[in-house]
Each structure stands twice: as C-alpha cells, then as structure tokens.
Amino acid sequence: MKTDEQDRPDVALRGIRVIEMGQLIAGPFAGKTLGEFGADVIKIEPPGAGDPLRNWRMLKEGTSVWWQVQSRNKRSIALDLRSPEGQDIARQLIASADVLIENFRPGTLESWGMGWDVLSELNPGLIMLRISGYGQTGPYRDLPGFGAIGEAMGGLRHLTGEPGRVPVRCGISIGDTLAALHGTIGVLTALHHRKVNGGKGQVIDVALNEAVLNVMESLIPEYSAFGAVREAAGSALPGISPSNAYRCVDGYVLIAGNGDSIFKRLMQTIGRDDLAEDPGLADNAGRTKRVVELDAAIGVWTATKTVVEVLDALGQARVPAGKVYTVADIVADPHYRARDMIVSQTTRDGYALDVPGVVPKLMGTPGTIRSSAPGLGDDTDNVLAQLGLSEKDVDVLRSKGVIA
C-alpha cells in the first residue's frame, strides 16, 4: 500500500502505514504530521458526510479549506465501522499497519470488537494512539471531552484574558493540537522502541487536559511551594519583566526586554538611562517588583511612534520585538515565504490554495506535501483491491452501504 515516493531514502517515515480513525482535529492532526514525513496514512471516514471537518468554517467548491490542510498526504476510504462487514475490513487494514490513530470516546472501539486486546493479538507490532478527553482510565474516562474543555481543565483558560474579566480562548483549538503533538511524539517514540526492542507495539494514551497541563510551565510547582494561584494577566508575562504588548500610534508591538543586558539596551533606546543604570533593576527579581513603572515608561515612548519606527529602533538595539500580525501580515511577510512556510497547494477540485508549510524543518529528510486532501472515499476501491477484495466483493459491499 505504499507509494513509490515512500521508498526514497530521504523520506523519514518510509514504509510506515498509519490507519486514521479519528475525526475533526486531534487525531487527524497527528495523522497529518506523520503523513508529511512520509507515512502512508489511510483515513477511514463514515459514508455519507465523512469527517465533519469537511464542512467546518469556510467552504470553497463545497469543501472546507481547513480540510485541504488537515488531510493532505492522506488516502480516504469511506467505511461504515458500525457494520460487521466494515469492522472486518478495518481489522484487516489494522493487521498490516504500523500505527492506528483514534480519538473516539473510550470504549467505542471495544464495542466494535477492536479493543487493544483484539488488535494486539492480531498485530503484535501495532502502535495504537488513543486521544480522548480525559484518558482511557480514571473517573472521568467516560465523559465527553473536547479541546476547549481540556484547555479549561488543564489550567490554560484561567490564565487567558484580562484580569477580572471572563476567561477567553486563544482563538484556535489549541487543546486538540497540543494533544495531537504529544500523540505524535508518542508514536515516534514507540516506533523507535519497537525497532530496538523486538518489534513489540504498545498503546499511547493521550488526554486532552493532560496535554494542556504539560505546557503550563511553573503552574503546579509554584502552587506546591508557595500556595500561589496564578491569575490572568492580559498580554503580560507575570514574573518576567518587562515583557508585554505596548500601544503605538498605529497598532501594538510585543517587546520582550526581560534579559539583563537586553533590558539595559531597551531603556537606553527609549531615553531612560536612569532606569538602565538603576542597580535595583539589574535583575529580573528587581524588575518584577517595579513592572508597573517599567511598562509605563515603555508605553510613553511607544505611544508617540508608529509600529515600524518602534521595530526599527529596537532592531538596531538588538531588543526582541515584533508586530502583532494578522493573517494578511503573515502572508505578505517575505521571511515566511523564504522558509517555505506559505506554499501553494493545488486541491483535487483544481484550484490553488495558499497553505502553511511543513514544520519542523528536517535538513536530511524534509517533510513534503505529496498529495492534496482526498474527496470522501476517493481511495476506497484501491485500498480494498490491495486487501485482495475482488470487484464483485466491492460491488456487494457498496450495495449494502458498507462502503462509499
């Protein structure tokens, strides 16, 4: 089932076959990442509407443009997993796969006869990535969980927004994406372990709330050591000073002047040599005590200048700073283009679409966009033929609605 390109020596995951059963964001993002580095990703979708992401947000030619990014480098088979025949075909696919990705509620695969006990006996080398709201164990395992709920339970939502106001989301489904990235790390780790330890597979259990908690930096130890409950702080970075967003004549800039030498250069640039040489501000601890004073001083300076003027001055002083970009700014920025982070992808409907490039950048085995996102069931016949089913078998399954 692998493509010719997967045999190239510069394809990192050549020969790795992934069966993706997930929908929407978390599971499919993990599949996307593996596919970009050469894995053969076969996506199983329900006949009819397919993955709901096909119809999320803005549609072009009847399909979400988000789908065009999330499902590139994948093959689609439309298969009814609720039918015995569909479950049998899925088991056949999994029997020869390296990785299975699923993000159903715990117990769903077991109800279809595809629990770990069954699948690991069928394929001892199988690596099974399971992404769910709260994990496969624990008192909350059966509760429905979305990324937004994981962000709330993981502590992130409490910190986003302005002090004293309603918590806000960061604007994207960050909880799902964090879970997907943790899952991808788990898959790659398990593939290495399988290679050097006798070919044994294993389950990777990723909970949305735990993936969020894992990136919450000093949140837990500060509470343990000091009883400190970190609160929302708007655009500031509490305890790291100065680091904030500052208003200019025509917008905002982010300035990170929290390094000791960087702070001095920042203060000299804004005409506050007195603060640059103040011994009480020589380190972060002292600056944090006077953060209101420092933010006010920086704000007075930026308020009289344009964003470009601020960035030019701070660039010359080697102070980290950046404009708060809109998507229009991102697409117009030559640096993104130079690093192939905005690339053109032709969809199967025939139109060109600007999409994000591949991250991370591997010099020896770079990720690629080998194929555009599939239509629902585009690869059903081909995948089933490779399983050994005849045209007659396929016609019968189609007539029963098992495939589409």
TrEMBL record:
Q: Which InterPro entries match?
A: CoA-transferase_III_domain (IPR050483), CoA-Trfase_fam_III (IPR003673), CoA-Trfase_III_dom3_sf (IPR044855), CoA-Trfase_III_dom_1_sf (IPR023606)
Q: Which GO MF term does the entry hold, naming one?
A: CoA-transferase activity
UniProt keywords (A-Z) are: Transferase
Domain of life of the source:
Bacteria
What the entry lists under Pfam families is as follows: CoA_transf_3 (PF02515)
Read off the SUPFAM superfamilies from this record. CoA-transferase family III (CaiB/BaiF)
Q: Which protein, by its recorded name, is this?
A: Formyl-CoA transferase
Q: Which organism is it from?
A: Pandoraea aquatica
